[in-house]
Amino acid sequence: MGKVILITGPARSGKSEWAETLAMQSGKTVVYVATAVSDPADEEWQKRIQKHQQRRPQDWLTLSVPIELTATLADAKPNTCLLVDSLGTWVANLLEQDEISWENTITEFLETVQLVAADMLFVAEEVGWGVVPAYPSGRQFRDRLGMLVRQLGVICDSVYLVTGGHVLNLSILGMPLPPQKG
Length: 182
Prior knowledge:
Blueprint: E1 4-9, H1 15-25, E2 29-34, H2 43-55, E3 61-64, H3 69-74, E4 80-85, H4 87-93, H5 99-113, E5 119-125, H6 136-155, E6 158-163, E7 166-169, H7 170-173
Parallel strand pairs: 1-5, 1-6, 2-3, 2-4, 4-5
Antiparallel strand pairs: 6-7
Helix pairs in contact: 4-6
């Protein structure tokens, strides 16, 4: 199995930049797995995507994977480093799944992560530090992403928190919680 690394933190904290740094340091062929869907009608969104693209080295392969993330991971070659940016966008893309389908998706995802020979870097937003969203889909998104980050973090080799202009290695500073039951 390859290295599995989670990079989490608030919006605009530098999560993606830290993940890109780690990917470059891997010495492997980097595959950038973009979970966002490009929308030419949304000029501001296009500018965000372009900013990310301009930061990345030209020799990185970019895959657009808004839904089939697990299959993409399963197909990864051992000598590669996959940088998945971001899990929050992937969760948002799957919000219409019912609870049983969602649980199946996450179970398959976590099982696959533990079997892949490639290195994997996952960027994930921290969404649970604020108020409880006032609308059901906001609560569903927050709860699903929060649980996914927790479950993934427990099986990762390293977990980093990027906030306040600093990178903290939580794998050194803390200890994982036991797996959650039910």
